[in-house]
Amino acid sequence: MAMANPQAQEVITCDLCDNSTQQFCNNCQLSLCVDCVSKHVDKLKYQPHDIVHFKDRKVDFPECKIHSSQRCEAHCQQCDVPVCLKCMLGPHNGHKVKDMPEIFNDKKKKLEKETKEIESTIIPQYQKKNEETESKLSILMAEFDELDKEKENHRKSWHQEVDTIFNHLGSLMKSIKENLLAALNSHQSKIKNQIPDMTHTVQQNKEILKSNNVSAVTNYKSKLEEYRNMPTDIDVKLPSLKTNTVQGRELSLELGGYKASLTQTTLSSLTEEVSYLSLQKLLEQAKSISAIPTGLNPLHHVACVGVDEAWVSGKDKTIRRVDIHGSVQDTVTTTCKTRPNDITVTRQGELVYCDTKNRTVNIVRHGRTETLITTSRGWYPNKVCCTKSGDILVSMFNTDKSQYKIVRYQGHTVKQEIDRDEDGEPIYNGGTHALSVVENNNEDICASDGNAKAVVVVDKSGRVRFRYYGTPARRKKSFNPVHIVTDSMSQIIVADFNNDCLHILDQNGQFLRCVDNCGLDNPYGLSVDSEGRLWVGLLHSGEVKVIQYMK
To answer: What are the helix (H) ranges across 438-536?
Structure first.
């Protein structure tokens, strides 16, 4: 069947070069110029070719999927499917149909128009928007750097203000002390100086009484009234230091007539956030919102991205981003020899993973992997956490796993190492279990020490605050902590692998509750999304349970 001549006046080019087409191969459905006919035939010389003039070209009609050996020479407009003659007499009887060549030409023009619009208009718009967004990101990061510098300047200014207040207070106290001491010393001198004089008078009087000397007795001048008139006592009143502290709102103090105060005024938007957080409470029973199949067995790590997506990883090199319905949205092939040992996400949403064998911590930016950190020789990174300040906490072990420590990196630079307590004893136990780490809102560093079967929390200086051994939860099996996270309320949540549950503690280590009613079989990976829901990776089933545990 000959194909209708296209109505468009545009030049149709050869499919093998940019010259205008004159010929057509019906067998291969290719447009050809005169020069490319022989090239096409020679290239596929073992295949038959039906070369005709372009205006005499034929459409290779598709075979009917319902009626064998029938060709679909028309297209049903109502059902939008190709149909053969038997279809038009049967299930599509009475439907409006169009000849296949006409449909072919119409759809080809539409496809060409769409392709042209995507290529010439939409892609440039997306590229421009991407550049604008990149520029906004750069500007935002620069502005936040300036804001952070300004904050630090204000910190110094506030510290200076506090120092000024307390220095003034110290000077005032010193002045009061000196005045009171001077007054008391003067009073004491008057009293003390009278005692020898009175003692001398007593001795003289006794001598007069012994002698019976009339003249001495009659000439005696009494000093009794002088001695009775003892110097008036000084009322020494030490002023009290009055202080008042309203947590997070006001600091004030008063000494005598001196008063000083520092007041924090909270902006309305922050007040709303604080009010929102204060209203959040633990649910009586946690609720499982979704069970996401990942296809990974085992499933080791989960790291939330925003609200409804998370990166997940298992025993292979690939990290996958899945949504709450289980659809894979993106994949990253890591540089790891076997598998990533941990994954996390920066505050900007960039994926970070730990490559223990190569001793590196890596970040994925714009689809490319960059090395952020290479640990010192003999130390292997195992778990990783991105802090709110932009630092990176890395837990690592030595060659024989006899020692573990947590190192804070600022860029490539080691800023802090946490491994020994005040007595020089190791804070974390050696052994084969990983040391999961996370930073809390109060800058405490919380670790899940599987070798010690404990949660270990140190403050930002590295001083041990408390250890939690799982005892208050009263579980049947021994406490086996694996991954650990914190939430917006500074609560600490740790997965207990042996007891198929989660332990929730407050920031001071007080046990609050266990989550054990959501089918958490061998919980391992753990993350919190931006809506405060827990994403719990189950090691052997490969499922991620999304759990709501706060009101």
So the answer is: none
Amino acid at 254: E
Q: Any residues with CB less than 8 A from the CB of 28 and at least 6 apart, and which? A: 40, 44, 47, 49
Return the percent helix, strand and coil in the chain, to nearest 5: 30, 35, 40
Kindly report, residue by residue over 104-116, the tens digit of the pLDDT.
778 888 898 999 9
540 contacts 522 by C-beta, under 8 angstroms: yes
Which class in CATH covers the domain with range 273-550?
Answer: mainly beta
Distance CA 462, CA 406 (A): 10
Averaged confidence pLDDT in the chain: 86
Closest CA to 309 of 331, 276, 287, 333: 331
Q: Per this entry, what is the length of the chain?
A: 551
Which residues, 6 or more positions from 460, have their beta carbon under 8 angstroms from its beta carbon?
Answer: 443, 444, 445
Which pLDDT tens digit goes with each residue over 363-384? Answer: 998 889 999 999 999 999 999 9
Provide the residue type at 137 as one letter.
L
> What are the two backbone dihedrals, phi and then psi, of residue 231, each rounded to the nearest 5 degrees?
-55, 135
Instruction: List b or e across 414-433, with b for residues whose CB sees 16 or more CB atoms inside 10 angstroms.
Output: eeeebeeeeeeeebbbeeeb
**Percent with pLDDT over 70 in the chain:** 93
Write the CA distances from 242 to 43, 162, 173, 252, 421, integer angstroms.
98, 16, 13, 8, 37
Contact between 547 and 287 (Cβ < 8 Å): yes
| Residues 294, 324: Cα–Cα separation, whole Å | 10
For residue 101, cis peptide bond before it (omega within 30 degrees of 0)? no
Cα gap 281→202, rounded to integer Å: 84
pTM of the model: 0.53
Per residue in 461-484, pLDDT (tens digit) is 999 999 999 998 899 899 999 999
d(CA 405, CA 420): 8
Per-residue three-class SS string for 329-386: EEEEECCCCCCCCEEEECCCCCEEEEECCCCEEEEEECCEEEEEEECCCCEEEEEEEE
**What pLDDT sits at residue 276?**
39
Mean pLDDT of the 153-181 span: 81
CB atoms within 10 A of CB 211: 11
Phi, psi of 441 (to 5 degrees): -60, -30
Instruction: Give the pair of three-digit tokens for residue 249.
Output: 């709102």
CB-facing half-sphere around the CA of 249: CA atoms within 13 A: 6
How do residues 86-132 score in pLDDT, each as one tens digit? 898 888 998 998 887 787 778 888 898 999 999 999 999 999 999 99
User: pLDDT digit string (tens) for 430-462?
Assistant: 999 999 999 998 899 999 999 999 999 999 999
Q: Which residues contact 207 (CB under 8 A, 6 or more apart)?
A: none
* Nearest in space to 302 (alpha carbons), one of 286, 330, 322: 322
